[in-house]
């Protein structure tokens, strides 16, 4: 009875095993790739079945291509995630550069390896098969196979899936990399300094410091490239290779981010020196804005690259970022408008830092131009924050771009001033303006322009050469004093608002009258003595 029961279970188990036996299946991308890799595993090693996935080749040649394909993937540490490989028999690649029934296993690492539908079955493409030997030689150097032949048997003893000779080889490789690090660091720094002097023909402390910090990551990138070239030769386990190459790729991305951040710093240091050498102070304000923008771009692209290392599709990330960007833009339209206004201000340059401007009701000196707004300090030292979107659409009167500062005023002489003294006063004021060191002597006006309510009006229109507001006020001060001194010496008085009452036939009452000296010789001598 016991024997019958055992025989029954043996038949059941054999039936289940027979049902679970993997057969060659080329009906879809998933089935073809699984067939290829499954029949090359140690527990199910049947290379003739794996070779069925190679189109256009037969026998040992097809088996050799299938084996090399697996070694290429193993050497690069590329593990196929079958949950992401399509099982659709009519799968069509609609996002690749060649639209058709094809599937690329690792489009960003090895785009040359892909399967395609031929007839009703899926195979590794002819192009893939034709490039296998080239890919294999690029991953496994000429010494790889010879290295396997000279290793004694005890060298193949395994500890944590790594053979003894592989431990020794990795230790030797790390030692060589440490030695190369110190040698290459000096060579790279020397090369960077030579390029700096050749291109820029100058140096400063910030650039030297940035180049010194730039040297180390560049050397490390070279050493990582060397490791990627040599590590496949050790024929490590696929899981170990996958973890190792993931770590190397992460380090490569991080170091490249660091390198580009330092390059941004070097570039902005050069631009800052250039901005300081120009009279345009708006360029100085652009330095931190441009540096923040470039830094953000580098970090964004670096994070995008890091996400792809973990299997995230960059197209999906960019699409998500675009949708998110549109949502953020719609939610913050004012911020986007201000950013566009900032760009227009830097492109058009309607004013510079330090310019005195009039923009609507705001009058003052431009202090800063930021991402969102511009700071203007008024004459009473109060500060205005004007959104750049508003400022870019306003009529801006830039006083700082004037060639001269115009000053216009009216001088009022008493109505009883004799015509001779009025003429002498006009001539004298003209000469004062011509002799003044801060006025434009070839363009001014001093004329008797009319009769005011209480005075004879003398127009004074003058242009000061000093553009600074405080210097202009000092120039006005000296001009006014010179005119006052001349008027006193000439003997003319300035009028002030008054009313004259004429009283006729009133005994012993006389009007107030000044005694003006209109002697021509005296007047001419006073004018000639002006300095």
Automatic annotation (TrEMBL):
Source taxon at top rank: Bacteria
Segments traversing the membrane: 164-184, 242-261, 289-308, 314-331
Coarse class of the protein's main subcellular location: membrane
Alphabetical list of InterPro entries matching this protein: LSM_dom_sf (IPR010920), MS_channel_C (IPR049278), MscS_beta-dom_sf (IPR023408), MscS_channel_2nd (IPR006685), MscS_channel_C_sf (IPR011066), MscS_channel_TM-2 (IPR011014), YnaI-like (IPR045042)
Topology in membrane: Multi-pass membrane protein
Keywords linked to the UniProt accession: Cell membrane, Membrane, Signal, Transmembrane, Transmembrane helix
First and last residue of the signal peptide: 1-18
Mechanosensitive ion channel MscS C-terminal domain: residues covered: 409-494
GO cellular component: plasma membrane
Family note: Belongs to the MscS (TC 1.A.23) family.
Protein name as it appears in the record: Mechanosensitive ion channel protein MscS
Organism: Lutibacter profundi
Taxonomic placement: Bacteria, Pseudomonadati, Bacteroidota, Flavobacteriia, Flavobacteriales
């Amino acid at each position: 009875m016991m024997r019958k029961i055992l025989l029954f279970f043996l038949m059941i188990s054999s039936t289940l095993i027979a049902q679970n036996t993997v057969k060659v299946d080329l009906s879809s991308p998933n089935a073809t790739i699984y067939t290829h890799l499954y029949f090359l595993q140690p527990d199910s090693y049947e290379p003739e079945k794996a070779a069925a996935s190679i189109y256009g080749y037969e026998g040992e040649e097809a088996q050799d291509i299938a084996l090399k394909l697996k070694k290429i993937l193993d050497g690069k540490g590329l593990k196929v995630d079958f949950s992401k490989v399509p099982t659709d028999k009519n799968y069509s690649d609609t996002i690749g550069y060649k639209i058709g029934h094809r599937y690329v296993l690792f489009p960003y690492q090895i785009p040359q390896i892909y399967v395609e539908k031929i007839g009703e079955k899926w195979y590794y493409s002819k192009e893939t098969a034709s490039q296998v030997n080239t890919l294999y030689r690029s991953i496994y150097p000429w010494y790889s196979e010879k290295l396997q032949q000279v290793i004694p048997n005890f060298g193949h003893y395994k500890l944590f899936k790594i053979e003894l000779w592989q431990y020794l080889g990795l230790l030797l490789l790390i030692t060589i990399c440490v030695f190369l690090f110190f040698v290459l660091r000096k060579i790279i720094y020397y090369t960077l300094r030579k390029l700096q002097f050749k291109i820029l023909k100058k140096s400063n402390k910030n650039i030297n410091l940035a180049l010194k910090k730039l040297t180390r990551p560049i050397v490390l990138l070279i050493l990582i490239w060397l490791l990627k070239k040599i590590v496949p030769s050790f024929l490590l386990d696929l899981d170990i290779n996958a973890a190792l190459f993931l770590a190397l790729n992460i380090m490569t991305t991080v170091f490249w981010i660091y390198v580009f951040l330092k390059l941004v710093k070097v570039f902005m240091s050069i631009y800052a020196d250039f901005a300081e050498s120009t009279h345009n102070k708006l360029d100085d304000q652009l330095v931190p804005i441009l540096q923040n923008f470039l830094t953000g771009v580098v970090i964004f692209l670096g994070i995008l690259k890091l996400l792809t290392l973990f299997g995230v599709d960059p197209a999906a990330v960019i699409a998500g970022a675009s949708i998110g960007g549109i949502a953020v833009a719609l939610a913050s339209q004012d911020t986007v408008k201000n950013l566009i206004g900032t760009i227009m201000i830097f492109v058009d340059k309607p004013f510079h830092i330090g310019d005195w401007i009039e923009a609507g009701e705001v009058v003052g000196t431009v202090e800063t131009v930021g991402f969102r707004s511009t700071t203007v300090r008024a004459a009473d030292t109060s500060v205005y924050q004007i959104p750049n979107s508003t400022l870019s659409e306003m009529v801006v009167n830039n006083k700082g771009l004037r060639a001269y500062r115009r000053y216009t005023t009216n001088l009022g002489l008493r109505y009883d001033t004799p015509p001779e003294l009025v003429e002498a006063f006009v001539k004298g004021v003209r000469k004062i303006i011509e002799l003044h060191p801060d006025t434009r002597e070839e363009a001014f006006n001093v004329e008797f322009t009319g009769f005011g309510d209480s005075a004879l009006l003398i127009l004074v229109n003058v242009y000061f050469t000093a553009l600074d507001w405080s210097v202009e006020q000092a120039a006005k001060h000296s001009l006014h004093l010179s005119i006052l001194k001349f008027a006193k010496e000439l003997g003319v008085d300035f009028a002030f608002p008054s009313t004259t009452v004429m009283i006729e036939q009133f005994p012993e009452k006389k009007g107030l009258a000044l005694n003006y000296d209109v002697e021509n010789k005296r007047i001419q001598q006073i004018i000639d003595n002006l300095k």
